[in-house]
Amino acid sequence: MHLRRHPSFVPVLVGFCDQLIAPLRGQRLMIKLFGQRAPTEIAAHIVMMHMSASKPVERPTLTRLQRRLPGPRQTAAFVAVLRGLSLVTVERDPEDARIRYLVPGPVILEGLRGWLAMHLDCHARLTQSDGPSFRLQDDAAFYAETIRQCASWLCRDNRPLTGFPDLAWTDEHDSGIHLALTLVARSAAGREAVEISTAELATSLGVSRSHIRNLLATMEGRGLLRFSDGRRHLMLTPGFVASVEAWFCHQVCWLAAAAARADRVLRPA
Fold first, then answer.
1. Domain interval for residue 119
2. At the top level of its lineage, which domain of life is listed (predicted)?
3. pLDDT of 82-107, one tens digit each?
4. Is 1 inside any structural domain?
5. Cβ–Cβ contacts within 10 Å for residue 29, how many?
6. Which terminal residue of the chain, N or C, has fewer Cβ atoms less than 10 Å from its own Cβ?
7. Cβ proximity of 86 and 105 under 8 Å
8. What is the DSSP secondary-structure string of 84-112?
9. pTM for the complete prediction?
């Protein structure tokens, strides 16, 4: 089924964009951290290594993480921040205290569980199917296997976002994609004009007003939005809205396929 043909597509997309930002809205420290791509990728690698490890040598440590990611000093700095916020804890190896495993904390694991469930729920609503999102809450094995089935996501080229240059560009800037999705939600996916308050957006997204102004101006220059009424309102351009809609469809289908693979792996022979 073509997801965009579903009569509830627009409200489902708008709700998705709003819910994706909601956990970070007003949380200046968290959105400053995860509004950047590097800490998000570091956390993703820690979770994947933690969930996939079948023996101690595969568990995440700072050294193993630095071998996987560019910029060892940056990786060490962000891991220190994650530890300082108790988003990641350390567990010593019982046989060698020099080895310290990085363990993702409940904020990260439960946040990821909710993120996955939101995607699977959107897919189920738009395909009118019985989605597996409820299993993520009650079935630890299914949750872990779904994470493992997303291993290829760690390669940036495999992510749905990479196929949509305009949206991927917003992800290159601090809180850029959060701003873009906020505008999609507030404009009913480009169907309505948005009244602009750089102060309110800056507070909501945890960045400065000048940063919001610069992002909006650059988005205008790239043809992603148009201002009107003395720059007090804006409209997202049809091309950018179409790009966001296509990315959303691709991403929810990608993750639904990963969950389906997890279900097959766990199904009794």
1. 22-157+251-266
2. Bacteria
3. 999 999 999 999 999 899 999 999 99
4. no
5. 11
6. C
7. yes
8. HTTSEEEEE-SS-TT-EEEEE-HHHHHHH
9. 0.91
